[in-house]
Amino acid sequence: MGKKLGILYTELREDENALIEAARKLGVEPILINTSEIVFDMQEGKVIVPGDAEVVIERTIDHFVALYSLILLERAGIKTVNSYEVARTCGDKLLTTIAFVENNVPTPRTQISFNLESAMTSINELSFPVMLKPITGDKGSLVARLNDYDAAKAVLEYKDQLGQYDHAIYYLQEYLQNRPGRDIRAFVIGNQVVKAIYMIANRATSSGDKNLTVIDCPLTPQIVEVALAAAKAVGGGVLAVDLIEDGDSLKAIEVDYTIEFSSLGLAKELAPLIIQYALAQI
């Protein structure tokens, strides 16, 4: 009997279609599980959904749908890629930074504050410019580089008035002055760094796909070492580790647990490896 592979998705984008094609080429017909159709029976601890997957690759769009789906799938005895704990850590910049620090992964100096006054104190200690980031979110969304006191005060006062709980958490990070104007994204599958790319943003605080120039990056020993350490710190799996060059050193910034690859031209390289990794978990 063949292995039963599920793909949990919100909508079938290029990445999901690439995974489906890769699975079929490996002789596996994936069970497609739309988040609008899945039901979890809390008392019985089971999943009510077409098919009977042994392992599920999470490919949803919403972080909290992903997070709660993963913990409920695991509760039902289904293996997941990635795990709930990995998604919980990677989906929260504060938890990711804690994981980096506790595991001696190099990362920029970061301070957390919970009101405007203490945030301004943190900014003064870090010195301008300072990066202000949301606790959750990706693709550079709501990331701001605060270049001076007036800019910082204006942005923080605006956040302070928004009223949502997450806007009262100020995640502030030093700006690395020696960065060469590009980031590195290293793709880690299991215990191997399988690919790295340079990403050159066409806007200062955005890494959205439409604003990127992508160039192949050689897998140097330093990139492999830091990327593997970062991936291990958050729990491992199928991950994209974002790195920044700081002079001759590398620092880890964050880790993505639902990796995007088709828009970067990497579908043929990465999709088969992801499927193989998922099947190996059964």
From TrEMBL:
GO term, biological process aspect, one: SOS response
InterPro entries recorded: ATP-grasp, ATP-grasp_RimK-type, ATP_grasp_subdomain_1, LysX/ArgX_preATP_grasp, PreATP-grasp_dom_sf, Rp_bS6_RimK/Lys_biosynth_LsyX
Signal peptide: none
Domain named ATP-grasp: residues: 97-281
Keyword set includes Ligase: yes
GO CC terms, sorted: cytoplasm
Alphabetized UniProt keyword annotations: ATP-binding, Ligase, Metal-binding, Nucleotide-binding
Pfam (any one): LysX_preATP_grasp
PROSITE patterns: ATP_GRASP
Record GO terms (molecular function): ATP binding; metal ion binding; ribosomal S6-glutamic acid ligase activity
Name by which UniProt lists this protein: RimK family alpha-L-glutamate ligase
